Backbone:
């Protein structure tokens, strides 16, 4: 992952991820653009969009089954899909919050429930606070929430520490 500021109010970025769960593997690549409405030197509202591609592989042929030669597990299925994302982020020196929709298109290996389906979107929301302990250490408690139709709201509470010393930041 990487980003580059084009100017004070615009930035671009690239993301790559490899996700493997069981017999399924997804490689994703996206290009990102953000625009910042700068209210003053330390407060801004950002809008971001991304476009990218996902390659998903279901390696059914690698499955161990109780019936040798089971035709349901005789091969693999691979699919290449385009995707897009959108998000909004607000930041002050002590506080931040944002919302995003990380996958605007529902890309599955099979089935009719694919494409641009707003009722199936996953909505993410987060907020956090910068709590300065001393000149070298900052605690950042935060909350992340996820919602999608017909599922309970999921949440995470996080506590991160940022330590700065000699111009190097760890955190």
Residues:
């Amino acid at each position: 992952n990487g980003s580059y500021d084009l100017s004070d109010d615009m930035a671009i970025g690239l993301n790559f991820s490899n996700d493997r769960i069981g017999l399924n593997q997804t490689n994703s690549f996206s290009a990102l653009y953000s625009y910042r409405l700068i209210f003053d030197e330390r407060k801004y509202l950002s809008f971001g969009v991304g476009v990218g591609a996902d390659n998903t592989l279901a390696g059914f042929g690698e499955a161990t089954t109780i019936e040798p030669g089971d035709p349901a597990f005789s091969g693999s299925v691979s699919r290449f899909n385009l995707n897009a994302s959108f998000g909004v982020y607000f930041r002050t020196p002590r506080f931040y919050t944002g919302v995003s929709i990380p996958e605007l298109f529902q890309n599955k290996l099979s089935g009719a429930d694919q494409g641009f389906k707003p009722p199936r979107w996953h909505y993410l929301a987060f907020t956090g606070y910068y709590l300065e302990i001393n000149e070298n250490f900052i605690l950042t408690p935060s909350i992340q929430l996820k919602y999608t139709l017909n599922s309970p709201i999921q949440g995470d509470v996080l506590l991160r520490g940022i330590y700065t010393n000699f111009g190097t930041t760890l955190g």
Remarks:
- DSSP finds no helices and 13 strands in the chain.
- The mean pLDDT is 86.
